[in-house]
Design goal:
Helix content: 40-55%
Number of helices: 28
Strand order of the largest sheet: 11-12-10-7-8-9-13
Structural class: alpha/beta
Family: Belongs to the DNA mismatch repair MutS family.
Bound molecules: adenosine-5'-triphosphate
Radius of gyration: 35 Å
Organism: Tolypothrix tenuis PCC 7101
Protein name: DNA mismatch repair protein MutS
Function: This protein is involved in the repair of mismatches in DNA. It is possible that it carries out the mismatch recognition step. This protein has a weak ATPase activity.
Strand content: 15-25%
CATH class of one domain: Alpha Beta
Pfam families: MutS_I, MutS_II, MutS_III, MutS_IV, MutS_V
């Protein structure tokens, strides 16, 4: 049972006159007709909030009114509901429904819009109302409800023992992908990467159709599904192999799924088919244009698990979860919303295919070298709106005329874009050299049909230019002539009647009228018919005035309808081109990302890393891309890195530690160990994204995974201690890392007794260096670990240096060979003002410990 349901356990009100607030308890036969209809609708959507159009408002009644008034802090009122008495009610003005619905959806509710589908003034009996839209967190299209800078993913998951299928779509941009795997940990990591707004999960739970809001638990959800997301519990039927497959075949009009790459991936097919069914169920008449389904494999990309993504602060900082200070913040120089979203996707899913990486690098390089091209492109890209989402809204029939003008403006920039890149030779720029002629024609047509600055509402006219449609022009001319006649009426009647203060006015109730001050009412001509008497004036109509008015009003309705029809036809034409426009949008987005990365490379002095097939990681004068932008220019101290043991030998054939697999990094607090560790991880990740990197030179073997274990954060949510979290993360690394992984460990074993911690740290480092041979940087305060380098050829010691003055330590932030053998902790204590006697004693204790802790020697004896 969801929290949503539990709030509405039928409870009989004690108060005899309290308004009814539960549809399940009310005597329906005593409800008035409209409420009976409302209750029928509510029965169909028990788990959603039903917004029901009544005149100028979207109202909610009964239990929904209670929820909505609480969630939106609106006043809960009541209304007469027939013989039953009063019914709880709260509502929002119809023009503001988007704003209020956004808030409800953000809180994890599904919202059903039940709108009037006929003109209230023409309705016989009850106005016809239908469900026109169902909004759930993962199925939004409206501009105001979406964040421009990130995708809004709807995911669907199928689990069979340890195997899983995952499909996801962003219906606002049309992306639709599916995959399957056999390790549930990968499923969790994929979901954490995608951060979907809603996840569909097929189950046989009794409360099908409900949405579990973030943090809500259900016995029907398996452990591998992170509780941070909204889960929609769905029937298993559309997720069955047969149904899902035929839905996909039908949607993409194909005979087999071979071409989509998932013919032999039953779980991927089941997830994708189930997702399509949900879209059909929620989108009603708006059919959403989706790109052709793409199948991918998780291991085709660099695997960056959630902890690592968090520790490396890819999209938000660890400390306060802000975008400012993240890698994305430091790298984003894109000029379009599409580019911004693409950069985020790229950073969350870096490549392992060298050719793919080099194609991006080639494009950046061309743009770095050709400054004029880069600047011109960036200038032009600024004028391109969100083509992906505009097309989505056009295709689903939710775009307004302003959207189509924005789309036309953007499409008409594309020929200029292709002209700019006509001489380009790198792959991503060449992809823009040809713009399909039909898109140019479409842009011209839209511009020729729709006025430059149309109103938001599409049913109230004022959208279409003259010269587009003869009938429209003729009706417009008639209306204008009648309006002119009315405009002249004031002057004509003043001269006819000799009343200089006579006025022609208009109001909603009476339409046009002639107003005469009461003092002059005796001079009124006989054909004037009195309609209304006010304190100082009398209002009249004439048969002729009413005839003109009737003509204007009816012609205006026809005009608005005709304009609407022309507009809808144009919108459909755009929808038909959705696939072509979106293919091009993706190419534009990629060029925007690469242009931004090129700009960054030039401004920040990045270099093109050489990507090599081996295991080597060689970085000369590397910098941390975020820290260097956060401190004054020139203050960041660059440091080099050399990792990836190649059985290095010196001139005499002796093994050396020059090119180790594992570095033990020591240094005092705040000297820069964490910064260095992250810098290496970020440079590797940036390089596999295709970006240039903050270094003087870099030669990098492609990694399969990056792991980090950084800092100590209590996982209060799961009730795990700092130490257990640390051990879990470490276990995960040791169980999954390979010799092609990059492992960054900061402070292993600090959350327990010193000797336990040191022993674990030692054993972990040794295992990584000897068994896994992963490239590892191990930052630690246990300088005893420096002894490892004496035992293992592929381990080297490095330290972050400081300069000691009598009463202070100066941080040099320089990473140099060698191990710190000094306890800076005691030094720091002295600087902090610990009494001299305590410091002295601490040094004595330290000396004793060191005397008895020659670990390497002891272990050799053990071996
Ligand atoms: N290479 C560098 N150049 C300039 N400033 C640096 C550099 N490295 C680190 N810093 C600065 O030093 C501060 C401390 O660095 P960091 O947190 O990496 O230290 P640490 O050695 O990991 O400390 P602790 O052991 O206490 O965790 C950083 O916030 C950064 O501003």
């Amino acid at each position: 049972m969801t929290a949503f349901d539990s709030e509405f356990q039928p409870t009989e009100s004690n108060h005899p006159t309290a308004p009814h607030s539960d549809t399940r308890l009310v005597d329906r036969s005593k409800l008035s007709k409209m409420y009976q209809h409302y209750v029928e609708m509510k029965d169909k959507y028990p788990h959603a909030l039903l917004l029901y159009r009544v005149g100028d408002f979207f109202e909610t009644f009964f239990q929904d009114a209670v929820t909505v008034s609480r969630e939106l802090e609106l006043v809960l009122t009541s209304k007469h509901g027939g013989e039953v008495g009063r019914v709880a009610m709260t509502g929002v003005p119809h023009h503001a429904w988007e704003r209020y619905t956004t808030q409800l959806v953000e809180k994890g509710y599904a919202v059903v819009i039940c709108d009037q589908v006929e003109d209230a003034s023409e309705a016989v009996g009850l106005v016809r109302r239908e469900v026109t839209r169902i909004l759930t967190p993962g199925t939004l299209l409206e501009e105001g409800m979406l964040k421009a800078s990130r995708n809004n993913y709807l995911a669907a998951v199928v689990i069979a023992a340890t195997h899983w299928g995952l499909a996801y779509a962003d219906i606002s941009t049309g992306e639709f992908l599916t995959t399957q795997g056999s390790d549930l940990e990968h499923l969790t990591q994929e979901l954490m990467r995608l951060q979907p707004s809603e996840v569909l999960f097929p189950t046989n739970a009794p409360d099908l159709g409900s949405i579990l809001r973030p943090g809500e638990t259900s016995p029907h959800l398996p452990q591998c599904l992170p509780p941070a997301f909204c889960y929609s519990l769905r029937s298993q039927v559309p997720f069955s192999a047969g149904e899902a497959r035929s839905r996909l075949l039908q949607k993409f009009k194909v005979r087999s799924l071979e071409g989509l790459g998932c013919e032999h991936l039953p779980l991927a097919v089941r997830a994708a088919g189930g997702l399509l069914e949900y879209l059909a169920d929620t989108q009603k008449e708006n059919s959403v244009p989706l790109q052709l389904l793409r199948t991918y494999t998780v291991t085709d990309y660099l695997i960056v698990d959630h902890q690592t993504r968090r520790n490396l602060e890819i999209t938000q900082t660890v400390r306060d979860g802000t975008f400012h200070g993240s890698l994305l913040w430091a790298l984003d120089r894109t000029n379009t919303a599409m580019g911004g979203r693409a950069l985020r996707r790229w950073l969350l899913q870096p490549l392992i295919d060298i050719k793919g990486i080099q194609a991006r690098q080639d494009t950046i390089q061309e743009l770095v070298e050709n400054t004029a091209l880069r600047q011109d492109l960036r200038q032009l890209l600024r004028q391109i709106y969100d083509l992906e989402r505009l097309t989505g809204r056009a295709g689903s029939g939710t775009a307004n005329a302003k959207d189509l003008v924005a789309l036309a403006d953007s499409l008409s920039r594309l020929p200029e874009l292709s002209e700019l890149v006509s001489e380009a030779y790198s792959p991503f720029l060449r992809a823009l050299q040809k713009v399909p002629a039909k898109l140019e024609e479409l842009a011209q047509k839209l511009h020729a049909h729709i006025v430059e600055s149309p109103p938001i509402h599409i049913k109230e006219g004022g959208l279409i230019r003259s010269g587009v449609n003869n009938l429209l022009d003729e009706s417009k001319a008639t209306v204008e002539a009648d309006q002119q006649w009315i405009a002249n009426l004031e002057v004509d009647e003043r001269s006819k009647t000799g009343i200089p203060t006579l006025k022609v006015g208009f109001n909603k109730t009476f339409g046009y009228y002639i107003s005469i001050s009461r003092a002059k009412s005796d001079q009124v001509p006989s054909n004037y018919i009195r309609k209304q008497t006010l304190t100082n004036e009398e209002r009249y109509i004439t048969p002729e005035l009413k005839e003109r008015e009737a003509r204007i009003l009816s012609a205006r309705d026809d005009l608005n309808q005709l304009e609407y029809e022309i507009f809808v036809a144009l919108r459909e034409e755009v929808g038909e081109q959705a696939e072509v426009i979106r293919n091009l949008s993706r190419a534009v987005a990629a060029v925007d990302v690469l242009c931004g990365l090129a700009e960054l490379a030039v401004n920040q002095g990045y270099c093109r890393p050489q990507m090599v097939p081996g295991r080597e990681i060689q970085i000369v004068d590397g910098r941390h891309p975020v820290v260097e932008q956060s401190i004054p220019s020139g203050f960041f101290v660059p440091n080099s890195t050399q990792l990836g043991h190649q059985s290095a030998t010196d001139d005499k054939g002796q093994m050396t530690n020059d090119n180790p697999d594992l570095i033990i990094l020591t240094g005092p607090n705040a000297s820069g160990k964490s910064c260095y560790l992250r810098q290496v991880g970020l440079i590797q990740l940036m390089a596999q994204t295709g970006s240039f990197v903050p270094a003087r030179f870099a030669k990098l073997g492609v990694c399969d995974r990056i792991f980090t274990r950084v800092g100590a954060v209590d996982d209060l949510a799961t009730g795990q201690s700092t130490f257990m979290v640390e051990m879990n993360e470490t276990a995960n690394i040791l169980n999954h890392a390979t010799s092609r992984s990059l492992v960054l460990l900061d402070e292993i074993g600090r959350g327990t007794a010193t000797f336990d911690g040191l022993s674990i740290a030692w054993a972990v480092a040794e295992y990584l260096a000897t068994d896994i041979k992963a490239r590892t940087i191990f930052a630690t305060h246990y300088h005893e670990l420096n002894e490892l380098a004496g035992m293992l050829a592929n381990v080297a010691n490095y330290q972050v240096t400081v300069k000691e003055l009598p009463d202070q330590i100066i941080f040099l932030h320089q990473v140099q060979p060698g191990g710190a053998d000094k306890s800076y902790g005691i030094e720091a204590g002295r600087l902090a003002g610990l009494p001299a006697v305590v410091i002295k004693r601490a040094k004595q204790v330290m000396g004793q410990i060191e005397k008895h802790s020659k670990i390497a020697m002891g272990l050799q004896n053990l071996d």
